[in-house]
């Protein structure tokens, strides 16, 4: 099986059978095209893949300045490929499990403190449809901690005002229900009542947030809305920063790590543990109050 055909089949397998997101599939294919080119350059085919060949490809990327996260992504991509090729009988042995993933240096998330978050949400008096959309997006992202792509995928029916919740379709098509506070629900209602009708078009369907041409709001525009809103409030931030802030403030307010994991839609508690550093002040206060030798 030639490289392009194998990658095409792998893409169908990843998206159709494994439910990987389009973003993940695109990233994997970009990396694997580089691997196929490397094999062609050295007179090899996919059927020749083994640990030394893969390590040589990774070493070249590392020598050219690729970051640890890039190398880790390449390892994940090639593991998906070798697993598939082994399943199809093209590789007699899967070399993927023998590849080591580089340890990630996880940076601490940038967050707004509670006062900055309050300033960001109180700094505007939205009037135009775009202003109403921006305000609703920022309120909802901070209130729920959902990802910007999850926000853009929301439909009108996903918000339940009787239960104060929003239904979210997350990574791996996993659905979760997230609580929403009153201010965010009010901002979304103002958008749907006073802003959304001005942008409705043939492509609107049931999308909650709409772009300028009436279709579902894209991730890029949603990010720009957040940047613009925070900039006008005199703050610097991004959608993922609002997600970090929501998780941070929940922990500082006394929520347990397991609840925050469910709230954020993390499959593993390890993804949530990055936020535990923000609770040091709360832990220190509790220590001072409770420990007899504090």
Automatic annotation (TrEMBL):
Superkingdom of origin: Bacteria
Keyword Cell division assigned: yes
Active-site feature positions: 147, 171, 240, 243, 266, 275 (o-(3'-phospho-dna)-tyrosine intermediate)
Residue span, Core-binding (CB) domain: 1-86
Record Pfam families: Phage_int_SAM_1, Phage_integrase
Record's subcellular location: Cytoplasm
Gene Ontology CC annotation, any one: cytoplasm
PROSITE patterns, per the entry: CB (PS51900), TYR_RECOMBINASE (PS51898)
Chief subcellular location: cytoplasm
Keywords, sorted A to Z: Cell cycle, Cell division, Chromosome partition, Cytoplasm, DNA integration, DNA recombination, DNA-binding
InterPro entries: CB (IPR044068), DNA_brk_join_enz (IPR011010), Integrase-like_cat_sf (IPR013762), Integrase_catalytic (IPR002104), Integrase_recombinase_N (IPR010998), Integrase_SAM-like_N (IPR004107), Tyrosine_recombinase_XerC/XerD (IPR023009), Tyrosine_recombinase_XerCD (IPR050090)
GO BP annotations, alphabetical order: cell division; chromosome segregation; DNA transposition
Residue ranges of every copy of the Tyr recombinase domain listed in the record: 107-288
Family: Belongs to the 'phage' integrase family. XerC subfamily.
Subunit structure and binding partners: Forms a cyclic heterotetrameric complex composed of two molecules of XerC and two molecules of XerD.
HAMAP family (alphabetical): Recomb_XerC_XerD
Function: Site-specific tyrosine recombinase, which acts by catalyzing the cutting and rejoining of the recombining DNA molecules. The XerC-XerD complex is essential to convert dimers of the bacterial chromosome into monomers to permit their segregation at cell division. It also contributes to the segregational stability of plasmids.
Protein name: Tyrosine recombinase XerC
């Amino acid at each position: 099986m030639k490289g392009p055909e194998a990658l095409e089949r792998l893409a169908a397998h990843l998206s159709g059978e494994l439910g990987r997101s389009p973003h993940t599939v695109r990233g994997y294919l970009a990396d694997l095209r580089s691997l196929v080119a490397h094999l062609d350059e050295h007179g090899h085919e996919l059927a020749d893949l083994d640990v030394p060949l893969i390590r040589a490809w990774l070493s070249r990327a590392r020598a050219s300045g690729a970051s640890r996260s890039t190398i880790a992504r390449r390892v994940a991509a090639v593991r998906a490929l070798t697993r598939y090729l082994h399943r199809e009988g093209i590789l007699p042995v899967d070399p993927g499990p023998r590849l080591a993933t580089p340890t990630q240096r996880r940076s601490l998330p940038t967050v707004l403190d509670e006062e900055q978050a309050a300033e960001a949400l109180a700094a505007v008096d939205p009037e135009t449809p775009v202003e109403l959309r921006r305000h609703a997006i920022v309120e909802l992202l901070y209130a729920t901690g959902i990802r910007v792509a999850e926000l853009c995928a929301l439909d009108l029916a996903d918000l339940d005002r009787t239960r104060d919740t929003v239904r979210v379709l997350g990574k791996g098509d996993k659905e979760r229900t997230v609580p929403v506070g009153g201010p965010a629900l009010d901002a979304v209602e103002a958008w749907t009542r006073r802003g959304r009708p001005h942008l409705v078009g043939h492509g609107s369907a049931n999308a909650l947030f709409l772009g300028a041409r009436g279709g579902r709001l894209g991730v890029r525009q949603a990010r720009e809305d957040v940047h613009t809103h925070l900039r006008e409030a005199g703050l610097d931030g991004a959608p993922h920063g609002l997600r970090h802030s929501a998780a941070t403030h929940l922990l500082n307010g006394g929520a347990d790590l397991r609840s925050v994991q469910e709230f954020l839609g993390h499959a593993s508690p390890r993804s949530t543990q990055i936020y535990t550093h923000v609770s040091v002040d709360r832990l220190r206060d509790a220590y001072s109050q409770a420990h007899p030798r504090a």
